[in-house]
Q: What sequence folds into this?
C-alpha cells in the first residue's frame, strides 16, 4: 500500500465518511449515495479512489456494485486497520465529525429497514411453494439440531456456504467460524441473505455471487464447505463436488444436506430440482472420487422426503504441492 496514495485518499471528508460506513456493513454504491446525499457517479469516483488506495474493496453483483472494508487475510491489512482505528478516535474527539457520522448511521438504519422489507416481500411471494416443500420433510429446526451435533465442537475456520439462499446456514454457523463467505447465483436471494446477515460484523461475513460449478476462489481457501439443499440442483454433481474440493484445505470438511433418493417427480417442475435425491452409495462414490473420506450418513425420516446429512473430509497433499510435483 502506497502511503502517499492513502493519505491523498483520506484528504476528502466524504471519503472519511465512506470508510466509517464500510466499517459497519457492506453497501451498494447506490445505497451509499442515499446515505451521503450525493449523486451515484460522484460516490463511484470516491469509491474508486478508496479502492485504489486499498481502503475499500469493490465487487460487482449483476448491475450493482458493492463496497466493503478490505478483507482480512493471513497478512492482515495494517494500514486499513490503522485508518479505521484513527477514524474511531476522530469521532470521539471531533464534534462535527461525530455529528455527521451519527446522521449517516441514522440514514443507514433506513437502508437496513428497506432491505428487510424487500426480503419480507420476497418471502411473501414464495411462501406457499416453500411451505409445500417443507411439509414433505423433517422440520428445519430438527435438521439444524442434527447438523450442529454432527459437526461437534471443532472450530469451522473459514466457512464457505455454497447456495446460501436465505443465509440461514451462514447465520447459524457464523458464531463458530473464523469467517463466513455466503455464495449464491441468484441475485434476489443474495439480497434476501444480505438483509438476514446485515447484523453480523462486516469483517466476519462476505456475500458473493457465483456458481457452484465454477467457484470464484483460488484453491486451498476454506476449512469447511457447506452445500445445504443445493446439490439436487446440479446438472453434474461430480463437477460440483470436485470444485468444492478444489477450494478446500487438506483436512477440511465438506457438509452436504440433501434428500435421499425419492420419486417426487413434481419437484422437477415446481422447484426446478434436477436430481431426485441421492443414495448413500451414489454420493459416497462421488465424494471419494472428489478426494474425500466419507463418514456414515445421518438420516432424518420424519416426512415423506428423507433428509440426509453427509460429511466428507478432504484428503491428500495441498493442491500447490500436487501441482509442483506434476511440473517437476
A:
Amino acid at each position: 500500500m502506497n502511503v502517499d496514495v492513502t493519505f491523498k485518499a483520506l484528504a476528502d471528508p466524504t471519503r472519511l465518511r465512506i470508510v466509517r460506513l464500510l466499517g459497519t456493513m457492506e453497501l451498494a454504491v447506490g445505497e451509499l449515495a442515499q446515505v451521503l446525499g450525493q449523486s451515484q457517479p460522484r460516490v463511484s469516483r470516491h469509491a474508486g479512489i478508496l479502492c485504489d488506495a486499498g481502503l475499500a474493496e469493490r465487487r460487482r453483483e449483476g448491475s450493482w456494485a458493492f463496497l466493503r472494508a478490505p478483507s482480512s487475510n493471513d497478512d492482515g491489512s495494517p494500514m486499513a486497520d490503522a485508518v479505521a482505528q484513527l477514524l474511531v478516535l476522530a469521532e470521539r474527539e471531533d464534534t462535527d465529525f461525530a455529528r455527521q457520522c451519527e446522521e449517516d448511521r441514522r440514514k443507514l438504519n433506513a437502508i437496513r429497514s428497506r432491505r428487510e422489507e424487500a426480503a419480507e416481500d420476497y418471502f411473501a411471494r414464495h411462501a406457499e411453494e416453500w411451505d409445500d416443500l417443507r411439509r414433505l420433510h423433517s422440520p428445519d429446526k430438527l435438521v439444524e439440531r442434527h447438523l450442529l451435533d454432527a459437526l461437534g465442537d471443532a472450530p469451522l475456520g473459514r466457512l464457505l456456504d455454497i447456495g446460501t439462499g436465505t443465509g440461514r446456514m451462514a447465520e447459524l454457523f457464523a458464531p463458530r467460524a473464523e469467517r463466513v463467505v455466503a455464495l449464491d447465483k441468484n441475485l434476489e436471494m443474495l439480497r434476501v441473505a444480505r438483509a438476514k446477515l446485515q447484523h453480523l460484523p462486516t469483517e466476519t461475513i462476505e456475500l458473493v455471487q457465483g456458481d457452484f460449478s465454477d467457484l470464484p476462489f483460488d484453491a486451498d481457501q476454506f476449512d469447511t464447505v457447506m452445500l445445504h439443499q443445493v446439490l439436487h440442483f446440479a446438472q453434474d454433481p461430480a463437477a460440483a463436488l470436485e470444485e468444492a474440493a478444489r477450494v478446500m484445505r487438506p483436512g477440511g470438511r465438506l457438509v452436504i444436506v440433501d434428500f435421499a433418493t425419492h420419486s417426487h417427480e413434481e419437484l422437477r417442475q415446481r422447484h426446478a430440482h434436477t436430481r431426485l435425491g441421492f443414495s448413500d452409495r451414489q454420493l459416497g462414490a462421488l465424494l471419494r472420487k472428489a478426494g474425500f473420506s466419507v463418514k456414515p450418513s445421518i438420516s432424518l425420516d420424519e416426512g415423506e422426503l428423507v433428509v440426509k446429512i453427509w460429511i466428507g473430509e478432504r484428503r491428500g497433499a495441498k493442491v500447490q504441492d500436487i501441482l509442483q510435483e506434476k511440473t517437476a
In short: Residues 318-328 have pLDDT under 50 and may be disordered. The radius of gyration is 22 Å. The longest strand covers residues 248-259.
